[in-house]
Specification:
Elements: H1 2-14, H2 18-29, H3 34-38, H4 47-86, H5 105-119, E1 123-124, E2 130-132, H6 133-136, E3 156-157, E4 162-164, H7 170-179, E5 185-194, E6 206-216, H8 221-236, E7 242-249, E8 252-261, E9 278-287, H9 289-294, E10 303-310, H10 311-319, H11 332-343
Parallel strand pairs: 1-5
Antiparallel strand pairs: 2-4, 3-4, 5-6, 6-10, 7-8, 8-9, 9-10
Helix pairs in contact: 1-4, 2-4, 5-10
This protein binds 3,4-dihydroxyphenylalanine (DAH).
3,4-dihydroxyphenylalanine binds at residues 167, 169, 211, 249, 252, 283-285, 306-308.
Length: 344
């Protein structure tokens, strides 16, 4: 018995694979195994030896079982350690870059303006891109044949009444008609607009405007100036100055162009501001009495201001981009560059 255990121990030291270990187990403890076979001898022993022999055999069996079990655990651990070592991850290696998109910069500008004006009590409203001539022009004091219509080379659909809106100003009309001449109005409407322009660095047949309209009692041009000032400072920084220049829009009286001081040269003159120190970013004015009246707002009682930003123009000025087409060519590298600039 002692010999059997000794040879088993030697064999166990040499074995290093699971299947070889199973063979050893079978050799000693299997049905016809060396240790199992010993029990056959019990019947031939004298009675007084049977008991000790049986007890010893059991002891040897238990010891052999635990020796094999111990070796099995060791072999399993060795295999696992080897596997872990071969699959180990070098955390110093550069990882695979997963490409991530970035929001279009025009969309970002629109969101910035929306957020600011909502904090000032404005609602964001929507209007149709296929619009009636009546709302896009007529009720904005631009009757058929008005020369100012020419500046907005319009896509007409089916005759003369239906068109792709050439500006977001028709949403002013729709909003005031809803207010029925009774409710004050405070809305902005960002949206797509269309003109029959040939696409180049500064023109696009589709572009984005952000319309603003405020109608209430006792509203004056200085309210517009104050509002514009806040927008300009939020978008272009605290040191940004603003100014009005006289202009003409059929639906506002007086009408103005709204300029910001050049954020590149701080007003001293550079190519971005064409050496004027100022950059025009929006048309605006006091809502024309005829427009108020046409929408049911009594001009003696109500007054208001309106403005229309070009969203691409704002983005171009803010991020110093000189070609409008980059916004619409879906080149991810562009939006990523702007995104980084935007985060500065
Ligand atoms: N709709 C004008 C345009 O496309 C921009 C504009 C000017 C909008 C003055 C306004 C405004 O609301 O008051 O050129």
């Amino acid at each position: 018995m002692e010999n059997i255990l000794e040879t088993l121990k030697k064999e166990l030291i040499e074995v290093s694979e699971e299947h070889a270990l199973s063979e050893i187990k079978a050799k000693y403890l299997g049905k016809k195994g060396l240790i199992t076979g010993l029990s056959a001898q019990i019947k031939d022993l004298p009675v007084e030896e049977k008991k000790t022999f049986g007890a010893n055999l059991n002891k040897i069996k238990n010891e052999a079982t635990s020796l094999i079990e111990e070796r099995k655990e060791k072999i399993e651990k060795e295999i696992l350690d080897k596997k872990l070592a071969s699959e180990s991850i070098d955390i110093n290696l550069p990882s695979t870059k997963v490409p991530v998109g970035a929001p279009n910069i025009v969309e970002k500008i629109v969101e910035e303006v929306e957020e600011l004006l909502m904090s000032m009590g404005y609602d964001v409203v929507d209007g149709p891109e296929v619009e009636l001539d009546k709302y896009n022009f007529e009720m904005l004091n631009l009757p058929k044949g008005h020369p100012a219509r020419d500046a907005q080379d319009t896509f007409y659909l089916k005759g003369e009444e239906l068109l792709l809106r050439s500006q977001t100003s028709p949403v002013q009309i729709r909003t005031m008609l809803e207010g029925k001449g009774e409710k004050p109005v405070r809305v902005i409407c960002p949206g797509k607009t269309y003109r029959r322009d040939d696409d180049d660095a500064t023109h696009s047949h589709q572009f984005m405007q952000i319309e603003g309209l405020l109608v209430d009692k006792n509203i004056s041009l200085s309210d517009l100036k104050g509002t514009f000032d806040v927008i300009a400072k939020t978008l272009f920084g605290e040191e940004c100055k603003t100014r009005f220049r006289p202009s003409f829009y059929a639906f506002t009286e007086p009408s103005v162009e709204m300029d910001i001081s050049c954020h590149v040269c701080k007003g001293s003159g550079c190519p971005v501001c064409k050496n004027t120190g100022w950059i025009t970013v929006s048309g605006a004015g006091m809502v024309h009495p005829k427009v108020l009246e046409g929408c049911g707002y009594e001009p003696k009682e109500w007054s208001g201001f309106a403005f229309g930003f070009g969203a691409e123009r704002l983005a171009m000025v803010k991020y110093n981009i000189d070609d409008l087409r980059v916004f619409y060519t879906n080149d991810l590298r562009e939006s990523k560059t702007f995104d980084r600039k935007g985060d500065n």
